[in-house]
Amino acid sequence: MQLRRGTGANLHNAIVVGFNESCVNIDDLATWQTALTSTASPSLSGDLTISRSIFSCAAPFKDSGSEPYPVSSFVMTLNEGNLLADPLLTAPYSPTAPDFRPMAGSPAMTGGVVPNDPFFDNVTYRGGVDPANDWTVGWTTNASN
User: Fold this and answer.
1) Using CA atoms, how far apart are residues 120 and 70, in angstroms rounded to an integer?
2) Per-residue pLDDT, 144
3) Can you give the pLDDT at residue 86?
4) What are residue 33's phi and psi, to 5 degrees?
5) What is the pLDDT of residues 38-56, one digit of tens each?
6) Cβ(50)–Cβ(24) under 8 Å?
7) DSSP 8-state secondary structure symbol assigned to residue 44
8) Which of 128, 119, 131, 56 is nearest to 86 (CA)?
């Protein structure tokens, strides 16, 4: 996830996997100004949060050296419930029949928290696919043209 140009969002229960460069990159000052109340004594502003998410990439976080705060500290310390772990998805890289459901023993099976908003389904898993009901079957593919 490259967050830049003042990105604001509240990301909950995401699973980010497979990126070679990094799972999370916050690459400009405008985004940091959105995310933090100050850089002298960093705390979350509430305008950019990442919580209850799982990250599994070659390098979880990318720092360019000009950040006012380490990306790893923003994600893992200031935000809550994030994990650096293999989410044990069934077959996320299958070219013709990807399966994004978490397998038995996956850290994605529990730990999800849903905002108190009727728009969201009340679930306890992490990620966008219910372990018991894969809504992506039949229309999702990794095949290239």
Assistant:
1) 31
2) 64
3) 97
4) -65, -30
5) 878 889 999 999 999 999 9
6) yes
7) B
8) 56
Residues 6+ apart with CB under 8 A from 30: 4, 5, 6
Whole-model pTM?
0.91
Q: How many CA atoms lie within 13 A of 140 on its CB side?
A: 14
Q: How far is CA 9 from the centre of its chain?
A: 11
b/e burial code for range 28-67 (CB count within 10 A of at least 16 → b): beebbbbbbeeeeebebeebbbbbbbbbbbeebbbbeeeb
Query: Which structure tokens are listed for 27?
Result: 């690459």
Query: Quick one: pLDDT at residue 16?
Result: 96
**142, pLDDT greater than 90:** no
Query: 133 exposed, middle or buried (CB, 10 Å; 0-12, 13-18, 19+)?
Result: exposed
Q: Please write the tens of the pLDDT for every residue from 75-107.
A: 999 999 999 999 999 999 888 888 999 999 999
- Give me the count of residues in the chain: 145
Rounded to a whole number of angstroms, the distance between the first and last alpha carbons of the chain is: 24
The answer to whether residues 32 and 39 touch, using CB atoms and an 8 Å cutoff, is yes
- CA gap 37, 114 in Å, rounded: 24
Q: Given the structure tokens 């908003």, which residue do they identify? A: 117
Q: CB 95: neighbour CB atoms within 10 A?
A: 10
